[in-house]
């Protein structure tokens, strides 16, 4: 049985004051009781990891953890501006997003680089959240399965059995920050296609991997999305900035 996992992604938002208020509000809300067997996390900008780790630790909620939004593909050395997986581990991260479509689009990250980053995360005892998804043009031309299969096949080739310890986030680019979300059935169809592709490699890996949906998840569409058999939770962008909306999605 795969646990439901809800991960917030603040992207490049936050401040020392607003982070503290967000974490206190969310922790207070979670202390009132959450559905059993779920995991929650929030991926914050790197400069705030230390602050947020301290605040999350103070809450002492076993099901709430910290995550990062990106990582270097290198272990250590002369890579100015990069942040290694070992550093993220030391700062208390449990999850690390890799290959988010914004990194692919604005920083030209390839599937190969994304897989190398995922390896770094795994080697340091954390869980990579590997993002895949098609653009509007790719879906409109009927190529969405082919595109996502291509992204997944590179991860399979590099990560092999270690994919069982990863999460995959299906995030259709046309749904990110646009308010247009994939209907629960459209998302389920893609999640199923991803799981079947993983089963071609190894059925055990396919049944273990959590596949999260991301793209305009809100409190009012989360229930239907999370009820789908191959949707194991969500990666929440815009709605995670509001602690009440994030809590509502976590409870969906
Ligand atoms: O990482 C999160 C995704 O990019 C989704 O963002 P969004 O919920 O603002 O559409």
Question: In words, what does this structure look like?
Answer:
Homodimer. This is Triosephosphate isomerase. It is found in: Cytoplasm. Its main location: cytoplasm. One of its GO terms (cellular component) is cytosol. The longest helix has 18 residues. Helix 1 links the parallel strand 1 and strand 2. The protein is built from eleven helices and eight strands. 46% of the residues lie in helices and 16% in strands. An eight-stranded parallel β-barrel has the order 1-2-3-4-5-6-7-8, surrounded by six helices. It has 252 residues and is an alpha/beta fold. Helix 1 packs parallel to helix 2. It has one domain: TIM Barrel (Alpha-Beta Barrel), CATH 3.20.20.70. The two termini are 18 Å apart. The protein is globular and about 45 Å long. Bound molecules: glyceraldehyde-3-phosphate. Glyceraldehyde-3-phosphate binds next to strand 8.
